Amino acid sequence: MIRPVVSPLLEAKNRVIIALDFPSGPEADRFLSHWDGRDKPFVKVGMQLFYAAGPTWVAKLVETGYKVFLDLKLHDIPHTVAGAVRSVASLGVDLLTLHASGGRRMMESAREGLEAKGGANRLQLLAVTRLTHIDQKVLNDELEVPGAVRDSVLNLAHLAQLSGMDGVVCSGEEVSGIKEKIDRQLLTVTPGIRLKGQDPRDQKRVMTPEAAIQEGADLLVVGRPITQAPGPVAVWEKMIADIQETGRDDHERAT
């Protein structure tokens, strides 16, 4: 097992990020009420919820003690992305995504925008490599990018590392390659997490929580397996316990 990055974000309870894939703030609030009086989970706010609820709602999450992964996947000219990063930094969120395919200058501008804001000690920038619905056919035939998906992901991860990104978003299938060939300390955030036997729906490159951790994933983004569960807190707690057990088992085998 590849050991995870040493980071304040990697306390056991933070390694599972719950994707709040809800169409409105009130609906997300109702879901989060399951955690009233409990330790608050690390949550992801994607484009749908951000556009519906807005930055003020996100800032309120932060103020009430949630760690927030703002998944906006910024992709524009360098100047525009730098400005967007400065705006997001003022919200106090922990993670923000931008597309690695925007190129090195765009990612470097994002880093410069963050440093100019003085938020470098708080906000971490993640470069999205290839989205988990991208398979070989889509990559080669539709996007007309030659080669294997894994090779494309590794290339984008290397570009992100050269550009000063704190981490990357990739499927569990590519984590070990990134850790071994690019940078062991690059934070790897893995979506497309499904429980055994669960329908992957629109995802193509999926993996169970235990398998992703064994591959070396640092943080797991989990949506429907938790948000659609009858008892979401219990599912979240079990995932965290399983991750800890997986880590202990691998450590024992290694020693």
From TrEMBL:
Q: In which pathway does it act?
A: Pyrimidine metabolism; UMP biosynthesis via de novo pathway; UMP from orotate: step 2/2
Any one GO cellular component localisation term in the record: cytosol
InterPro entries, alphabetically?
Answer: Aldolase_TIM, OMPdecase, OMPdecase_AS, OMPdecase_bac, OMPdeCOase_dom, RibuloseP-bd_barrel
Q: Per its UniProt entry, which superkingdom is the organism in? A: Bacteria
Q: Which UniProt keywords apply?
A: Decarboxylase, Lyase, Pyrimidine biosynthesis
Q: Which leading EC class covers this enzyme? A: lyase
Does the record carry Protein biosynthesis as a key word? no
Is Lyase one of the keywords UniProt gives this record? yes
| Classification via SMART domains | OMPdecase (SM00934)
Q: Where does the record place the Orotidine 5'-phosphate decarboxylase domain?
A: 15-239
Question: Which CDD domains would you find in this protein's record?
Answer: OMP_decarboxylase_like
The Enzyme Commission number assigned here is: 4.1.1.23
**Which NCBIfam families is this protein grouped with?**
PRK00230.1, pyrF
Give the family this protein belongs to, as stated in its UniProt record.
Answer: Belongs to the OMP decarboxylase family. Type 1 subfamily.
* Subunit composition and interactions: Homodimer.
The entry's protein name is Orotidine 5'-phosphate decarboxylase
Organism, scientific name: Melghirimyces thermohalophilus
Its encoding gene is what?
pyrF
